[in-house]
Amino acid sequence: MGEVVTFVRIPIHEIEQWVRGKHLLPKTMIDVRLESDFLVLYFSDRDRDSMLSTGTSASLPLHRKRKRKAHHRRHRTKTRGWEIVSRFTNKKGQTCAIYKPFVDALSRPLSDADQKMIVAKILKANGNKPSDATVNYFLENTLEYLSNVTK
C-alpha cells in the first residue's frame, strides 16, 4: 500500500506579513533560515547591502543554505540481453549504442509507420514502456547507422 503525503507550500512573504502583524519589527527582512524545527527570520533597520559595506555583518548569516532538489527517478530503457552491434556518434553529437534487434528488424525496406511500430514492439517486448521520444531515438540512430554502413 502507498502512503499519502500532503504537501503545503507557503510563500515567505506571507509568513513575514503575519509575523509583522503580531510584532513591531525593523523595516527590512534580511535573511530566512530553517534551523531544526524552527523557521528563523532575520530583521534589521538597515538593509543587507549597507550592513556589508560598514562591516557589521559578522554576526549575520551571509549565505542561504541551498535547497536540495527533489530526487527524480531516471527512466532508463532496459536493453539487457541485446547484443551491441556498434557504438557511434550520431548527427546530434550523442554517443549511441546500436542494438542487434533493431538492425535486424530495420535492415529490410519498410514504411515509416511500420518502422516505428516495430521499434516500439521490440522495446515493449523487453519490459519497457517507451515514449514517442524513445522510439524515435532508437529508430533514428539505427537508421543513421544503417545508412552509414551501406555507404
List the helices and strands and how they pair.
Blueprint (H helix, E strand, L loop, with lengths): L11 H11 L5 E8 L2 E7 L3 H7 L29 E6 L5 E5 H7 L5 H14 L6 H19 L1
Helix pairs in contact: 3-4, 4-5
Features:
151 residues; alpha+beta; two-stranded antiparallel ribbon
Written overview of the protein:
This protein is of the alpha+beta class. It folds into two domains: 1-64, no CATH class; 84-150, no CATH class. Helix content is 38%, strand content 17%. The protein is built from five helices and four strands. The strands form two sheets. The chain has a two-stranded antiparallel ribbon. Strands 3-4 form a two-stranded antiparallel ribbon. It is elongated. The model has no long low-confidence stretch (mean pLDDT 85).
Give the number of helices: 5
Q: Roughly what is the average pLDDT, rounded to an integer?
A: 85
Order of helices and strands: HEEHEEHHH
Low-confidence stretches: none
Task: Profile the largest sheet.
Answer: 2 strands, antiparallel
What amount of the residues lies in strands?
Answer: 15-25%
Measured as a percent range, the helix fraction is 25-40%
Report the C-alpha radius of gyration, rounded. 29 Å
Count of DSSP strands:
4
Tell me the number of structural domains: 2
Q: What general form does the structure show?
A: elongated
Gap between N and C termini: 56 Å
Give the spatial strand order of the biggest sheet: 1-2
Derived structural class: alpha+beta
